[in-house]
């Protein structure tokens, strides 16, 4: 049992946080997160799973309230949150934060964007809502610890339900009682099992969390009730879904901002594959190895990384994103680790299969969650080593902003052309000055 009113602490933080008390660099990090999220949402807008969700929403019918990213179409706020959330996670090219062992932007932005467009909230209101929601999700993640994820829960969905509801409640300006109810309504819907990684259901988790958060805050706004101690109460979130409860994580609410710990991706695959990719590339580059010089590769990763990305012989491009073997082999052979690397045709090419069959993945929980050690044995008898922890390589804000600007520009220009991409990127760079998010959404459709 936890002898603290943790749900009330969250609600107080959500309602009482003064926007002006949030450091400007925190808003800067939020703009980078949104720019990255928008880019990967555009990139995923026409993925097959997104088309199926769009077709499903067409069958169900809806009001035209909020825009679908990458389409000249509007849906209800809940449907827009669902579809945009799934689109932004479809390629697994979105950001991560280890405190929640999950992907914050794909659950926090879709619902708040739909609501902000529908009800004409400003860019600064929108960014503040994201910052508050991220801190709630991060704090709850620190509280439940790694065991929540290792037990099989997809934390992006479980913790994401609560964080996304917090962001939306903040955006709509719910009072403390309404916010408590919103958190309760969202948390009782929280779910998502890691068993579905490599299928359409993983991105669906993100969209579902965003959509459920929207319905939760709108119901709470209208007086719909729930438990006011959904986090710490008997049969609540902690007692049912967590083996740990580090309640001291809540001591930092309002005193620190975890947004600078968000790591964006530069490979279009599960974050658990990134350190193996980087370490293998580093060994090859440092030692001037050719592919034919390699006899075998041993990749050591944490249990967390192996559990998330252990598909040995992927049969689809989507499964390839969750295969350390394929991702390392692809990076060494082709160099391109972007979206083009993860097609059904690419994962079946004989050359890449021949290489990944000589890669052994080893569990080593002495390593950090997203750290990897790579050992390459060469044909000449050498043993070469490399080690990378991608979570210790998060660049400072100015460097991160430039890298993400370039990543998103490379995504947007082929889709929209240079002129439109430039206009949108300019708006994103000064999002805190935008009077209403509807202005941005009109730009996306023009």
Task: Outline the structure in words.
By secondary structure, the protein is of the alpha+beta class. It folds into 2 domains: 6-263 and 397-445, 2-methylcitrate dehydratase PrpD (Orthogonal Bundle); 271-392, 2-methylcitrate dehydratase PrpD (60s Ribosomal Protein L30, Chain: A), CATH 3.30.1330.120. 54% of the residues lie in helices and 7% in strands. It is built from 20 helices and 6 strands. It has helices at 6-16, 24-43, 48-60, 77-89, 105-119, 123-144, 146-150, 155-172, 176-187, 201-221, 237-241, 274-287, 303-308, 317-320, 324-334, 344-347, 350-356, 397-416, 418-429, 437-445, and strands spanning 66-67, 74-75, 294-301, 359-363, 371-378, 383-389. A hairpin with a 4-residue loop joins β5 and β6 (383-389). It starts with 5 loop residues before the first helix and ends with a helix. The mean pLDDT is 95.
Task: Give a quick set of tags describing it.
alpha+beta; 2 domains; 60s Ribosomal Protein L30, Chain: A; 446 residues; 7% strand; 20 helices; two-stranded antiparallel ribbon; 2-methylcitrate dehydratase PrpD
Radius of gyration: 21 Å
Report mean pLDDT, rounded to a whole number: 95
Helix percentage range: 40-55%
The CATH class of the largest domain: Mainly Alpha
Head-to-tail CA distance between termini: 54 Å
The overall number of domains is: 2
Unreliable residue stretches? none
Tertiary shape: globular
Strand content: 5-15%
- Architecture (CATH level 2) name of the largest domain: Orthogonal Bundle
**Strand ordering within the main sheet:** 4-3-5-6
Quickly count the helices: 20
Total strands: the figure is: 6
Q: What is the fold-level CATH name, i.e. the topology of the largest domain?
A: 2-methylcitrate dehydratase PrpD
Query: By CATH's scheme, which homologous superfamily of the largest domain applies?
Result: 2-methylcitrate dehydratase PrpD
């Amino acid at each position: 049992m936890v002898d603290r009113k943790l749900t009330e602490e969250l609600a107080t933080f959500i309602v009482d946080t003064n926007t002006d008390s949030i450091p400007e660099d925190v808003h800067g990090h939020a703009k980078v997160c949104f720019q990255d999220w928008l880019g990967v949402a555009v990139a995923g807008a026409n993925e097959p799973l997104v088309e199926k969700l769009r077709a499903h929403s067409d069958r169900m019918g809806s009001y035209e309230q909020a825009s679908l990213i990458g389409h000249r179409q509007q849906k209800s706020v809940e449907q827009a949150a669902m579809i945009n959330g799934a689109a932004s996670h479809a390629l697994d090219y979105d950001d991560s934060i280890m405190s929640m062992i999950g992907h914050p932007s794909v659950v926090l932005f879709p619902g708040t964007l739909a609501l902000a467009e529908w009800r004409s909230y400003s860019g600064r209101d929108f960014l503040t809502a994201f910052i508050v929601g991220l801190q709630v999700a991060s704090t709850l993640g620190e509280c439940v610890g790694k065991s929540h994820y290792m037990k099989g829960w997809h934390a992006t969905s479980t913790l994401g339900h609560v964080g996304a509801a917090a962001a939306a409640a903040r955006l709509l300006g719910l009072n403390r009682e309404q916010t408590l109810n919103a958190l309760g309504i969202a948390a009782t819907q929280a779910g998502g099992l890691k068993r579905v990684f490599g299928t359409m259901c993983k991105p669906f988790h993100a969209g579902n969390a965003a959509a459920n958060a929207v319905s939760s805050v709108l119901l709470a706004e209208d007086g719909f009730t729930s438990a006011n101690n959904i986090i710490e109460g008997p049969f609540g979130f902690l007692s049912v879904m967590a083996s740990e409860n580090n309640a001291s994580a809540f001591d930092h609410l309002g005193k620190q901002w975890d947004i600078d710990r968000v790591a964006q991706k530069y490979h279009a695959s599960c974050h658990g594959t990134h350190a193996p990719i980087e370490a293998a590339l580093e060994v090859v580059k440092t030692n001037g190895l050719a592919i034919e010089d390699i006899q075998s590769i041993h990749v050591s990763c944490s249990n967390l990384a192996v559990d998330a990305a252990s598909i040995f012989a992927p049969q689809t491009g989507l499964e390839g994103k969750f295969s350390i073997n394929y991702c390392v082999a692809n990076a060494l052979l082709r160099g391109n680790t972007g979206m083009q690397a993860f097609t059904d045709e690419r994962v079946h090419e004989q050359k890449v299969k021949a290489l990944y069959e000589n890669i052994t993945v080893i569990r080593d929980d002495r390593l950090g969650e997203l750290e990897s050690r790579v050992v390459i044995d060469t044909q000449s008898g050498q043993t070469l080593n490399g080690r990378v922890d991608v979570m210790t390589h998060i660049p400072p804000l100015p460097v991160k902003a430039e890298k993400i600007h370039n990543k998103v520009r490379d995504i947007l220009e082929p889709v929209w052309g240079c002129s439109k991409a430039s206009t949108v990127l300019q708006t994103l760079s000064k999002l805190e000055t935008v009077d209403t998010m509807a202005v941005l959404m009109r730009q996306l459709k023009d």
